[in-house]
Specification:
Number of helices: 12
Radius of gyration: 21 Å
Distance between the termini: 46 Å
Number of strands: 7
Structural class: alpha/beta
Shape: globular
Oligomer: single chain
Helix content: 40-55%
Strand order of the largest sheet: 1-7-6-2-5-3-4
Length: 339
């Protein structure tokens, strides 16, 4: 009930608010350009205010266009009656692909980002469904992963996200129409229900699907790392807590969703994904301080064939922790100039 009320609020209040904000920004953009140009010589980073302003304008314009398209598709589908049929689903995927392609192109150009891909990426397995488990750290990493899966490797992702992301109007509306689940990072007594939702999402993957989950449940921060260790101890998992203490750059993985997905898609291999380049930017202040970025993001893929994954819940939890220890070591080796 509460989720239905929140969804209605996003559609009726936040979505028009974003369109109105975009209109106000565009009609006053000469003023903002003058302000940004005046601030640029006295602020560190080459043309930092102008770069930030440009990316903000691009994002708001694209998001507003998406919201208008969402309204048009809702009307065209019979006021939402056929909105989840394959024809409309493909249109929604095309809209997401276009947004990610345009936004990523501008981010690369304005922030001078480059991406180096290593390992057997998803295009190495045509015609096979995949389960993608990704490290979660820094702003934009999930968008980069989605961009890679959709625009480089032509996958249709089914993604598990934090429920707070649903408050972004465009994300909240479009992913409610596509195969996706918004879940709480702290489900409490609802943990079994969350695993059932994840399993349902991972059921019946076809040849170009990629089920995406972030086992850590949130971006890495030192405080969250300590909370994850304390949570393991509080639940009586002392051995896992000691292993989690050895992780310096990733959070202890939460195995419930990953194991539920593997159980629902027994035919799918697993792709582990790690990246570095944005991981030390943990706050808005960090991001502002780093602009212009001039960063190289390294994205590493590892394929784990299903026959190499042990059976049994405890063995699979140990296997997942082992992979997260491997990813932690990889991050340590590939962080550039990060204290």
């Amino acid at each position: 009930m509460r989720s239905g009320v929140a969804y209605t609020l996003r559609r009726l209040v936040l979505a028009p608010g974003v369109v109105l904000l975009t209109f106000l920004l565009l009609t006053t953009v000469p003023v903002w350009l003058i302000v940004a140009a005046c601030l640029s010589p006295i602020m560190p980073g080459h043309l930092r205010p102008l770069r930030v302003l440009w990316l903000a304008v691009v994002h708001l314009v694209l998001e507003s266009l998406i919201l208008v398209e969402m309204l048009g598709l809702w009307l065209a589908s019979g006021f939402g009656y056929a909105i989840r049929r394959p024809f409309f689903e493909r249109i929604h995927y095309d809209i997401v692909e276009t947004y990610l392609r345009l936004m990523f192109r501008e981010a690369r150009r304005v922030l001078k980002l480059s991406i180096e891909v290593r390992g057997p990426a998803p295009d190495a397995f045509p015609g096979e469904p995949l389960l993608v488990c990704c490290r979660h750290a820094g702003p934009g990493d999930s968008l980069i992963l989605m961009h890679a899966l959709m625009n480089w490797y032509h996958r249709e992702p089914r993604v598990v996200l934090k429920d707070t992301l649903a408050w972004d109007p465009a994300i909240g509306i479009i992913l409610h129409r596509l195969p996706a689940r918004f879940i709480s990072p702290h489900p409490g007594e609802q943990g079994d229900a969350v695993e059932q939702q994840v399993a349902a999402l991972a059921t019946d993957l076809d040849e170009n699907d990629g089920f995406v989950i972030f086992p850590e449940g949130g971006n890495f921060t030192p405080r969250r790392r300590l909370r994850a260790i304390e949570s393991l101890r509080r639940k009586g998992h002392e051995r896992m807590a000691r292993r989690a203490e050895g992780l310096r750059h990733v959070l202890a993985p939460r195995p419930g969703g990953v194991l539920a997905a593997m159980g629902a898609a027994p035919e799918a291999d697993v792709l582990m994904v790690a990246h570095t380049g944005l991981d030390h930017m943990l706050t808005v202040a960090d991001v502002w301080r780093e602009l212009p970025m001039d960063k190289t993001i390294i994205m590493q893929w590892w394929r784990v064939p299903r026959e190499e994954i042990p059976s049994g819940r405890n063995a699979q939890i140990d296997w997942l922790f082992g992979w997260w220890e491997h990813i932690d070591h990889w991050v340590e080796e590939h962080r550039e100039g990060v204290p």
